[in-house]
Structures are given as structure tokens and as C-alpha cells.
Design goal:
Elements: H1 10-14, H2 16-19, E1 38-45, H3 52-69, E2 73-80, H4 81-93, E3 100-103, H5 110-115, H6 123-129, H7 131-136, H8 139-143, E4 146-147, E5 150-151, E6 154-155, E7 161-162, E8 165-168, H9 170-176, H10 192-205, E9 228-230, E10 239-241, E11 244-249, H11 255-270, H12 277-280, H13 284-290, E12 298-299, H14 306-316, E13 323-326, E14 331-332, H15 334-338, E15 341-344, H16 351-363, H17 365-373, E16 380-382, E17 387-390, E18 413-414, H18 422-430, E19 434-435, H19 449-467, H20 473-487, H21 489-505
Parallel strand pairs: 1-2, 1-3, 14-19, 17-18
Antiparallel strand pairs: 3-15, 4-5, 6-15, 7-14, 8-12, 8-13, 9-10, 10-11, 16-17
Helix pairs in contact: 19-20
Length: 506
Amino acid sequence: MMKNKKRFVGTLTALSLALSGCVLTASASESSQEEIPTLTWYLPGNPTNMTSDGYNAVMEEVNQYLEEKIGCHLEVKLFAFSEYAQKCSTVISAGEPYDLMFTCDWLNNFATNAGSNAYLALDDLLAENAPDAMADIPEYMWKATTVNGKIFAMPALQTYAKNDGIFLRADVAEELGIEGSSYDNGVNTYTLEDIEEIYSQIVEAYPGVIPADCGDIFWMHMDEAYGFNFLGGFDVPGVVRFSDEHTVIDQFQTEEFMDYCKTMYEWVQKGYAQPDWATYVTMTDQLAIDRKSPDHMTYQQGFTAPNVASMAVSDCGWTETPVPLIMSNKYAVTSGVTQSLTAVGVNSRYPEKAVQLYNLAYSDPWFVNTLVYGIEGVNYTKVSDTEIEIIRESNYANPLATFTLANQFITWVEAGAYPADVWEQTKAFCEDATPSELFGFIFDSSNVKSEVANCSAIYEEYKYPLLCGAVDPESVIPDMLSRLENAGSAKIIEEMQRQVDAFFEN
């Protein structure tokens, strides 16, 4: 049973080169090509899905192409999601030069970094160097990456509507008589209490099985279910309720936060979640193995959309499309855009080339799909113009996540796991999302930079234990709130309220 699996991450040691950011040295003509600039791009993903030889082979193909197209080479710095934010924080704090970096509201916080002058303002670079993206991406998406009147990141074209929920394995849903939700708003939705009841049924029917996926944290994707619109990211105090988007509150002081943490604490006690969930959630390798287990019955990956159902089929090796258990309406919110952004480092030596590289990832299917899937016949087999079969035992087996790049809608999909028209389905999924009154609002943290940094650091100490049910929240949350208050949480709320008021006045 999953509950008793031995934890191991041996491949991480063997792939230390990948985890430290693979460096291309394979170009045969390198000595005569020293004038070609090499750009660095920080990305989260699954570096254990590649070897250094596989990376070098793929990047030699990529770099020959880039040299011809825009006159540069690329070095990808790929890190596991669990360590990505810390690595980026170290790079930013040290003032290391880099060119492109994945950033968002839930990992490597965009608003905080933009407010701390970590990223370069792009207004003067975009029109000339990213013409395809500028022509296609709607103006409202660019507004969602604008801080204090300047654009600090380039959005990815992907699923921008957000809802909350999980997926249940189809055969388990049928056996237990559980009806799935519709992707339309408000049709057969579930509460967290309903999910707990389903977990209870699973444990009764399958003794020893842990029903929760545990690869994700509910709170970090429960904002819509609780009616919250997060304004500064998940690690910064300050949200509004969709029922009153004019009033900023501290989410950590709400009943919802306490109730959520108490529920997770109880789930661990009841055996609904991993006993070491707070550690397990960072164990990317172990999660990938456990998701393939016949005992794995649920899947959670941020939100509940058709393309995420296909991700579940691929990640878990399921033979049927899973049943969605949706916990909220779909909302069009700023965080739907800021969940996948690309920034240019403020110390980049090649900012024009960096924006050109992003534009190529946005517009060039060969480039982006080679970066994601590798070499045809070696790492994947083409099934149709838009479908592939991944050769998972190869040395470069889809280590990059497509949503982290510039345009997910031009990436190929895994045949059998994803329907051929999944991106059309995804676009349709977004169409009836309820728009937020604050769509386009981005919190500028520059006036409370120290307070945000201190509060974020304090919250980081408590985050995994509280959100993953490792500690009793009734005794721990008061201590966290006291420390946050001393670090200036009220000042952050006050500044955020001032900016919200100004947003509505304009």
C-alpha cells in the first residue's frame, strides 16, 4: 500500500548536473562561435526525467536552430517544483545575471519580486522583440502583469479561468456511485466536507489506501471555493472576497483558514492523507511513482479543467478519463493570468534577445515542442500533426511542463491521454468564467517591501506543517499570527487597501 512505501530519491544524486541547471557544452564549433550569446532560462519541472546526455543532445538541436533564427544559444536551468522558489530566491538575492525566469503568484512570487526590482521593465522592448505575442495576447492579460504602470513579465497563453476541485478515478467513482461535476458553472459542485465523505467511503471500501493525492496542497487552490481573490500571492497577507471586492482582509485571520487547517489535521489523523504529508508534498520523485500505483485513486493539480483530466490520465497511467469533483465556480481573476509568467532578469546582459526568445517560444511550434519533448524518434514518436507518444524510458522524457512556457496552445499532446482537441476544449472551458471586478489589479509591494519579505519568511516556516495537517492549528496559528503582526502584516493590508481603492477610482 502507498502508506507503507519506502521513500527514496536516489535518482536526484545521480542527476545532480540536471538539478544544478544543465549546461550545454556540446556544440562542435563552440570555439569559433564565442560571439553567440548564451541565454539562461530558469524553469520548474521534473529534471529526473532526463539525463545530462539527453539534455545535451536536445539542446544541441535547439541551439543550432536558435543560432539561425535569432542569433543566440540557450542554457536551461531546470529545478524540481519543490526547490524552484528557493533556488530563484538565492539567484535574485545574489544579483546573479540571468535572462528569463518562470514566475507566478504561487511559486517564485511575481508581485513580490517585481516590487523588489528583481525583474526588468519590458515596455520598451516588447513591440520590437515580441511582435507575435503582442499581436495575439489580449490587453487585459498584459494589464495583469503591470505593476506601478510598467510591464514586468510576459504572460503564457493557457488556461486563465480558475476553479477548485479534484479528480476521482473513473472505476472508483462508478463503484461508489459518485456522480461527477459538470465543467459548466454550478452543476453538481462539492464542498470540502463532501470530499471528506468520499475519502471515508474509499477507506472503508479499500482498507489501507490513502485517498488524498497529497501531491498538492488544497489551500493553495481553495481560493475560489472559499470565495477569496488573492491579491499578493498565497504567501502574502491580503485578499478580498468575491462578495465584497472593495474590502481587503487578512486571510490568515479568517475562520476559513482555521477551519481548513483543522480539517487537514483531522485528515492526517484519520488516514485520509499521508502521515508525512508536509514532507511528502516536496518529494517529486516519490509522488511520480506513487501516482502509478493501483492504489492511487485521486488527482489534484491546481484546478479542475479538461486538460487537467488528461494530465491525470498521463501522470497516473489511468485507462479512463477521471471524474471531476468541482468545488467552485470558474472565475476570471488576475491570478489566472499570473499563474504562469516569464520575467527578464534586471541584470540580464541580453534583454532584447531574451524577449525574442520568449516570442519564439510563443509562436514557433518546432522550438517549443523540441524544448518540451526532445528529439523525434529518440524521445517521442509523432502520431499526428498535434499528437505524440512519449518514449518514457528515453533520456529526455518530457522534463518540462508545457504550462510554464509562453504558449501552451501550440504544444503537442500525448496521444491516448489527451484528446486531440484538448486546447479547443480548454478555450471553451474559459468562456463562461465569472469575471472579477479587480481583474488586472496587481499589488505593488514596493512601499512595504520589508514587511512583505518578513511576513513571507515567517509564513514559510508554518506553511507546510499547517497546510498539510502536521500540527494542531488551534495552538500554532495564534503564534504565527502574532509573529506576522509584529512583522507588519497590518501595514501590508493597509497598503493593499489603498491600492484597491485607487484601482476602483480610476
